[in-house]
Amino acid sequence: MSAVDKVIEENCKELQGINNLEAQGTNKKMAPDHCFLVAFLIICSTSSLFQAAEIKAEASGDCQRKCGDVEIPYPFGMRKGCYLNEVFRVVCNESTGSASLALTEWEVESINTLTHTLRHKNFRGITLPFNSSRGPYVSSFPPVAGYHYSISKAENKFVAMGCDYLAYLIDEDTGKVQGSCSSLCNPNDTVPLQLSSCSGLFCCEINFPESLRNLTVWVWRTIYRTKGWKNQCAFFTFVEKDFLSFNKMKFPTCNESYVVPMIHEWAVGNTSCNKAKESIDEYVCGQNTECIDYYPAQGYRCKCNNGYRGNPYLPQGCQDVDECSNPEDHNCPLKTHCVNTEGNYFCLPNRTRMLELLIPLGNISPLLACNVSWS
């Protein structure tokens, strides 16, 4: 019998004695429920401590992880060996402190491994000139860099600026119409106005139902004017939903465009979770994580398991959350105290507090821990 087993047995006997004393007056002995519960929880909580998968490690720990004020978490990185692949390479301008994706013109403002979003402030829309016909006029947005990125439906909206047209947003991957809107203009206004909102006058917007990668705009003119508006153009873009600077944007001309803040979603790999797990070189999720298939980026995402927090793309990036350190993170009732375990916690009656010190030692025999008579 190990020293740990002996201590547990002694404490369980002490608990049994307490139960027997409490039962006096009822001519009945109470079962050693506390002992059984503690042993059971010890076994469950320690079993996960000895389960670890060999996974591909991130490059050396001396990688630079900040450019100016922008945090650059793995799988993104700035030099060879510090990023997953070229699609996640970030270029840092040391003189200005600005970061940009190597394969795009996007100036990165933030990268989040929890929400899998990348915010950049210089997404460039498209300017579409009109002629004497009603249309359709068709123009495509430049393809998103690689298959890893998509335009976030939750964080962005589609905006169209111009006069007297009906615009349709088409997903090229599926052929589905993602939405439409129309913009009208007052025929008595001959001078382009600054926009104070985007509600159908000079400007309309679409909240699209799916995150998108390859987009095309189809436009039909509702009225063609020979007088009034000299600049027969429209401007189309995606912009983050809480963008409020329309009053800073003048009515578009055919030789003018704008850059606006926008948010992309991202994923890793080019296959499903199950396929990626077949190869240690393909699968990049660390310990204590779950893998989630992601569409439309045709890859997958890594997420820390419940009870863990951190970067799921690092081998040991998901660390245990100590719920007991904050009363708001656990729901232990009165006359109990919280005991943190790996990835979880449980509540013990205050009188069994001594047993929690033994839990981190692990490898405890439940039979020895509960070797108490039920008579």
Automatic annotation (TrEMBL):
It is a single-pass membrane protein. The keyword Lipid biosynthesis does not apply. Residues 320-348 form the NOTCH1 EGF-like calcium-binding domain. InterPro entries: EGF_Ca-bd_CS, NOTCH1_EGF-like, WAK_GUB. Its main location: membrane. Transmembrane segments: none annotated. It is found in: Membrane. Residues 63-119 form the Wall-associated receptor kinase galacturonan-binding domain. Keywords: Disulfide bond, Kinase, Receptor, Signal, Transferase. GO terms for molecular function: calcium ion binding; kinase activity; polysaccharide binding. It comes from the Eukaryota. GO terms for cellular component: membrane. This is Wall-associated receptor kinase. It comes from Sesamum alatum.
